[in-house]
Amino acid sequence: MAKKEYSFYPGCSSQQGASSSNMQKSVETMCEELDVKINQIPDWNCCAASIGYGGGGELPRLTLSARNIALSEQHNTGQDIVATCAACWLATREAAERFHEDDGLMAETNQALAEAGLKLRNETPIRHMVEVLIEDIGYETIGGKVQRPLEGLKIAGYVGCQTNRPFGIAGESFENPMYLDKLVETLGADPVQNYDKKVQCCGGALAFSEPEKSQDMIKTIIESAYDSSADLIVTPCPVCQMNVEIYQDQINQRHNTKFKMPVVYYSQLMDVAFGRSAKDSALDQQVIKAGKLEEIANK
Amino acid sequence: MTELNTAMVEQYRNSFLQEVEANVEEGEWVKMCMQCGVCAGSCPLGNAWEHPPQEIFMMIRAGKREAVLSSDSMWMCTSCYNCIARCPRGLPITHIMHGLAHYAQRLGLVPKNQPTQKFAQKFWQNLNKKGRVNELKLGLSLYFMNGFGEGVKTSLKMKDIGLGMLKTKRMAVNEAFGGHGVKDLSGFQKIMKKAHELEDARIQKSGN
Ligand code: SF4
Ligand code: SF4
């Protein structure tokens, strides 16, 4: 298989010592296994996610993404931009689309970029890592790489919001996307059928500002996984992963529940199935240990 | 920015809809709403919205400027994009909600101590300082946003979560000193300054 190359936008929370550094680690391992080369956009900046709008109006916010795309077009010319963070992908792709449809905004952002000698051509596809997996690599190739099928694991595929809407993955429905379940199956595990909270919002950034309201939603996501006797939850989104994993103690205190449900990334499942160690799969960075998955990794 | 608010009231005396179309992100879409109510049933924090999106669009057309702009509702948007995926008219509802929230902040009309407004503002300041978000400083500034006493309480409440993140190397204490950022910080800041200037000028002009 010829090596595939992409211009990679990791985003702030993927940096060392940040909340989804575990995703970054496991994605790097996954890319090694799949012979995918990810070239970081040099000197990339924050995309403002979906919460920068208080202080940042439309143009300043979109210009953040314009700078990233411009840097990618200059340094990683001809390579598709790929993001692993749902919010990064969404913000960048949205910006690209706004610049396509609004010449005024495009002219203004280029005027701003010119202050640092940059220019946006806006000719670059902005993609999610999951699209790369499904469209460029394919289930079959992924299945062919499996050395340690994840047998006996029951997994609730939690897709969340922003990997799924408004762009989603081509050919998948917004209300009942199936690709995560297909991936789980490809890796030899047992996907929870009809996981009714698969696209339930976790509160996103409002988990910080409206913690109780958000935790009430998170509670339903976990409850439903338990109801279908899942061993763990898998998600593609760093905001979902963090929100659903780290507040379980607080939810337990408020609601007298006994939640201890591991939440992992798709990339961690793949790493383990591909035969890599718990450490390469960043399982040591779980706040709630994924015991059964670790057992397979240590076999 | 009350001066800007007064100028806008003057300028758009006869039509709040026109004011929204001219000044709010994607505001030109508001008139396309056909009041079907699909979006109103789509917000995850539905019962926390005094006025769901559908109602906000109706209120804009009815000229209820004060009630819309000083509303808490837009700040309840979790950016889940349910509405955009479902709206039969294709309104970019999420963006209009963000746009209304931003415009209300620009005019100084946000209700006091709106937690998401504070968080959004801190997030924006944090990322602009170094070009990348410093999660540790953002978290701390958030806990202390309602004063020192409450900050200590919140920090204690959040202590176990923080420790969990530290132990798993998903939080780093050295981020308190410097931390991650873009290398070309001056270039980054020049770009952002210009973008703000261009947008501010556009809005000022609309109020004159
Ligand atoms: S779903 Fe669209 S058309 Fe229906 S009320 Fe909401 S904005 Fe209006
Ligand atoms: S994106 Fe915002 S406005 Fe749209 S459904 Fe979600 S919470 Fe409601």
Could you characterize what this model shows?
The complex is a heterodimer of chains A (299) and B (208). Chain A is an alpha/beta fold. Chain A is built from 13 helices and eight strands. Chain A has a four-stranded parallel β-sheet. In chain A, helix 7 links the parallel strand 5 (154-157) and strand 6. Chain A is globular, with a radius of gyration of 19 Å. The mean pLDDT of chain A is 94. Chain B has 208 residues and is mostly helical. Chain B folds into two domains: 2-111, Fumarate Reductase Iron-sulfur Protein, Chain B, domain 2; 115-196, no CATH class. Chain B has helices at residues 2-11, 16-23, 53-61, 65-69, 82-86, 93-106, 115-130, 135-143, 148-157, 159-167, 185-206. Chain B is globular and about 55 Å long. The site of one iron/sulfur cluster has 14 residues of chain B, from helix 5 and helix 6.
Number of helices of chain B: 11
Main sheet: strands, sense, barrel of chain B: none
Largest sheet of chain A: 4 strands, parallel
Strand tally of chain B, please?
0
Low-confidence parts of chain A? none
Give the % helix of chain A.
40-55%
| Shape type of chain B | globular
The number of helical runs of chain A is 13
* Alpha-beta classification of chain B: mainly alpha
Which chains make the largest contact? A-B, 66 and 65 residues
Which CATH-level-2 architecture of the largest domain in chain A? 3-Layer(aba) Sandwich
DSSP helix fraction of chain B:
55-70%
Q: Provide the CATH topology of the largest domain in chain A.
A: Rossmann fold
Radius of gyration of chain A: 19 Å
| Main structural class of chain A | alpha/beta
Assembly state (oligomeric): heterodimer
List keywords for this structure.
heterodimer; A: 299 residues; alpha/beta; Glutathione S-transferase Yfyf (Class Pi), Chain A, domain 2; Rossmann fold; 4-stranded parallel β-sheet; 8 strands; 45% helix; globular; B: 208 residues; mainly alpha; Fumarate Reductase Iron-sulfur Protein, Chain B, domain 2; 11 helices; 0% strand; binds iron/sulfur cluster
